[in-house]
Design goal:
The complex is a heterodimer of chains A (179) and B (439). Chain A has 179 residues and is mainly alpha-helical. Chain A has a single domain, classed as RNA polymerase sigma factor, region 2, helix turn helix motif (Rna Polymerase Sigma Factor, Chain: A), CATH 1.10.1740.10. Chain A has eight helices and one strand. In chain B, strand 16 and strand 17 form a beta hairpin. The relative contact order of chain B is 0.13. About 14% of the residues of chain B have low confidence. The chains are: A mainly alpha (179), B alpha+beta (439). Strand 1 of chain A pairs antiparallel with strand 1 of chain B.
C-alpha cells in the first residue's frame, strides 16, 4: 500500500517520495543490474536511466502490480539494451566477461560485497538470456508466465533457459569453491 | 543444498551499497527532473476547516471515509462564550490524559453500543455493536458486533472491519495530516468544544455513582455533535438537549447525555459513560485484527481538497459535468437531497475500464471534490465573509449571473459566475448584478 501512496506523491512532485522509492529499492535494483552486467558503471547507468524514465513517465504511470516488480523489469530491460549495445560495439560478439571497472569509478560509487562479486562473475559466463531469466526468477520473484510475457518468449523457453542456466551456474560455482 | 537453494542463498547474501556519487547522480538527476516537470498546484495544503462533509447524506461508504475529514470541526466551532471557563479547564485536563476508554449507548436507527479506546499516541479504536433486531425483543441484551474502526494517525489511515460481511477496507489519506486523535466526533474533547460554541449553562452540582459532578447543558439548535457527527448530518434540528457531567475534583467528564430530534424526523439519544482516564494503552490494541477469512473491499488512497476558491470551482464544474446543473443549495441536508451523488457513487457503469478498487477510489475522490464547494462556502460563513449562493436559480449557461459571491474586503466582492469564471468586483457592481431582472 505504501508504494501506491509513494507513486501518488511522486505524481504530485514530491522529491521526498521519490527518495523513499530510491532508498527502498536501490539495493535490489543494483544487485539485479550487477548480476546481469557485472559492471558497476554500467549497473549505475541502468539504475540511473530507470529512475529518470520513471520520473519522465510519472504523470501517466499507473501502478497495476508491485512497484518493485515494475522497477526490476525496467532494470532488466535496460540491462538487455546495454548488453545489446555492447554486442554491437564488440565485433568479437562474445559478451564481455567480468568487466572490472571499479578502478575507474569515482571513489563513492557502487560498492559490491563479496557474494555479489562472485554472483556477477559467475553470471557473466552464462549467455545473457539465461542470466536474465534466472535473475528475474530469483531476484524479482517472477513466475515463468510473467517472465515469458515480459521477455516476449514462450513459457517453455523461459523454463529451459532457467534450467540450462542454473545447471551451468552450479558447475561454475562448484569450480570456484574447489579452486 | 540443491542448485536452486544455492543460487537463492548467494543472491540473498549479495549486497551493494551506493556511495555519494551514485546517490547524487541517480537520485539527484531524477529529483531535478521531477521538480522541473511538476507544477506547484499539486501541493495540497491542509484544509483549514473540515466541517461540512458529514452534513451530506452521502453513501455509507463515502460517509465512512468522509467522517475522518470532519474531525477538526472543533477548531472552527471554537468561539469564546464568556461563561465557559470551567469547560475550557476540562478540555485542558483531557488534553493531559494519554489514554482513556469509554462506552457510548446510542438509540438512533437502532440500538447501538460502542466501546471507544483512545490513545494520543496510537489512535482510536471503536467497536460498534448493534442490537440484533430479531432477538432483542425476546432476548434483551443480545447484541452483534457490527463494525470495528481503527483510526491510525501514524499510518494516516482508517481501517474498517465489517464483521457481518466479513470484509475490511483501508483508507489512506494523502496530503492531509489527520489530526483525528485530537478532534474526534463524540469524543469528549470535541463535545466540549461543541458545547462551548453553543449557548450553554451550568446545571449546578449533583452526584453520579458516588462522584460529585458539575453539569453543563446546551439546548442550542446549532449543536453539531452526536456519534460520528450524526446531529450535524440530520439537517435542521427541532430539539437539542445535551448534558455533560464533570467530576468537580478531577475536572474530567463522567457522563454525557445527548438527546437530539431532527426536524425531518427520528431521534438520536446517546449516553457516554464509564469513562476511564489515564488507562495504560497497549499499542497492539490498535493493530487491526483481521481474521483470515475476511476479504478486502479495497485499499483506497484519498486526497481531500483544500477549501479554497480554486477547488470550489473544480467541484462545481465536476458537479455540473456529472449532473448537468449545480447543487441547489449548500444548506444542511439539502446538498444531495435527491440522492444523485449517492446514485452516481453506486453506479458501476462509469469507469468500466478500471478495477473495482480503482473505480471506488476514483469515485470517492470525486465525492471529496464535489464536497469542496460546500466546504469552501462553510468556511466563508465561519469567516463572516457574507457568502450568498444562487444554485437554485443559476445554471452553467448563465454566463453573467452570480452563482456564488463573498466579501473580499470592505469595498470588494469576489464572484463565481454561472459559467464558473471568477472576478473581483465592487459592491456597486455586485448590487447591479444581483438586481432582480425585470419580469
Amino acid at each position: 500500500m505504501e508504494d501506491r501512496l509513494l507513486v501518488l506523491r511522486c505524481k504530485r512532485g514530491s522529491t521526498e517520495a521519490l527518495a523513499r522509492v530510491y532508498e527502498k529499492y536501490k539495493r535490489d535494483l543494483i544487485v539485479l543490474a550487477m548480476a546481469l552486467l557485472n559492471d558497476t558503471s554500467a549497473a549505475e547507468d541502468v539504475v540511473h536511466d530507470v529512475f529518470v524514465s520513471f520520473v519522465k513517465s510519472i504523470e501517466t504511470f499507473r501502478l497495476t502490480g508491485s512497484l518493485k516488480g515494475f522497477l526490476l523489469t525496467c532494470v532488466a530491460n535496460g540491462a538487455r539494451n546495454t548488453n545489446k549495445a555492447r554486442y554491437q560495439q564488440d565485433t568479437n560478439s562474445d559478451p564481455p566477461a567480468a568487466t572490472d571497472s571499479d578502478t575507474d569509478d569515482p571513489p563513492y560509487s557502487i560498492i559490491c560485497n563479496e557474494q555479489l562479486g562472485q554472483l556477477g562473475h559467475a553470471m557473466a559466463q552464462l549467455p545473457y538470456e539465461q542470466r536474465e531469466v534466472i535473475m528475474l526468477r530469483f531476484q524479482a520473484g517472477m513466475t515463468f508466465k510473467t517472465i515469458a510475457r515480459s521477455l516476449d518468449i514462450s513459457i517453455n523457453t523461459a523454463k529451459s533457459r532457467y534450467r540450462y542456466g542454473l545447471d551451468k551456474l552450479q558447475l561454475l560455482l562448484d569450480d570456484e569453491v574447489e579452486r | 543444498m540443491n542448485p536452486e537453494e544455492k543460487i537463492r542463498e548467494l543472491i540473498s547474501k549479495s549486497d551493494a551499497t551506493t556511495g555519494l556519487h551514485a546517490d547524487k547522480r541517480i537520485l539527484g538527476d531524477a529529483s531535478e527532473l521531477l521538480k522541473r516537470s511538476r507544477h506547484k498546484d499539486s501541493a495540497v495544503t491542509p484544509p483549514n476547516t473540515w466541517r461540512i462533509i458529514m452534513k451530506s447524506p452521502l453513501t455509507k461508504l463515502a460517509a465512512t471515509v468522509l467522517f475522518i475529514i470532519t474531525c477538526s470541526t472543533g477548531l472552527i466551532l471554537w468561539k469564546s462564550t464568556g461563561s465557559g471557563v470551567a469547560l475550557a479547564e476540562v478540555l485542558t485536563r483531557i488534553e493531559q490524559v494519554t489514554g482513556y476508554t469509554y462506552q457510548v449507548n446510542s438509540i438512533a436507527t437502532g440500538i447501538r453500543t460502542s466501546t471507544v479506546l483512545v490513545s494520543k499516541q496510537d489512535g482510536i479504536k471503536m467497536t460498534i455493536t448493534k442490537a440484533d433486531p430479531n432477538s432483542v425483543q425476546s432476548q434483551p441484551g443480545r447484541y452483534m458486533v457490527g463494525t470495528e474502526w481503527y483510526l491510525l494517525p501514524r499510518a494516516n489511515s482508517l481501517v474498517v472491519l465489517n464483521h457481518k460481511e466479513k470484509t475490511y477496507s483501508r483508507f489512506i489519506y494523502d496530503g492531509v495530516k489527520l489530526d483525528f486523535y485530537k478532534e474526534q466526533y463524540n469524543e469528549p474533547r470535541t463535545i466540549i468544544k461543541q458545547i462551548l460554541s453553543c449557548e450553554h449553562k451550568s446545571l449546578g452540582q449533583s452526584v453520579i455513582d458516588g462522584i460529585t459532578v458539575e453539569g453543563f447543558q446546551t439546548t442550542d439548535l446549532t449543536y453539531g455533535g452526536g456519534f460520528f457527527g450524526e446531529a450535524d448530518r440530520k439537517g435542521e434540528l427541532k430539539k437539542v438537549d445535551v448534558k455533560l457531567w464533570v467530576d468537580v475534583n478531577t475536572f474530567l467528564p463522567v457522563r454525557l447525555e445527548e438527546d437530539i430530534v431532527p426536524k425531518k424526523g427520528g431521534r438520536i439519544y446517546e449516553v457516554s459513560y464509564d469513562f476511564r482516564w489515564n488507562v495504560i494503552v497497549n499499542p497492539d490494541d490498535f493493530e487491526p485484527n483481521i481474521p483470515e477469512d475476511y476479504s478486502s473491499k479495497g485499499d483506497f488512497v484519498l486526497s481531500p481538497f483544500s477549501f479554497n476558491e480554486e477547488n470550489a470551482v473544480k467541484g462545481l464544474r465536476l458537479f455540473a459535468g456529472l449532473f448537468g446543473d449545480y447543487p441547489v443549495s449548500f444548506e444542511k441536508g439539502v446538498f444531495d437531497v435527491d440522492g444523485k451523488i449517492k446514485r452516481y457513487f453506486s453506479d458501476t457503469r462509469s469507469f468500466e475500464e478500471l478495477s473495482d478498487e480503482e473505480r471506488k477510489t476514483r469515485k470517492l475522490n470525486e465525492v471529496l471534490l464535489l464536497s469542496a464547494p460546500i466546504d469552501f462556502y462553510e468556511t466563508l460563513v465561519q469567516e463572516n465573509k457574507d457568502p450568498v449562493y444562487y444554485g437554485e436559480t443559476v445554471g452553467p449557461d448563465d454566463v453573467d449571473k452570480v452563482l456564488l459571491r463573498w466579501k473580499k474586503d470592505d469595498s470588494q466582492y469576489r464572484v463565481i459566475f454561472g459559467d464558473l469564471n471568477t472576478k473581483t468586483i465592487t459592491a456597486e457592481e455586485l448590487a447591479q448584478l444581483e438586481k432582480p431582472s425585470p419580469q
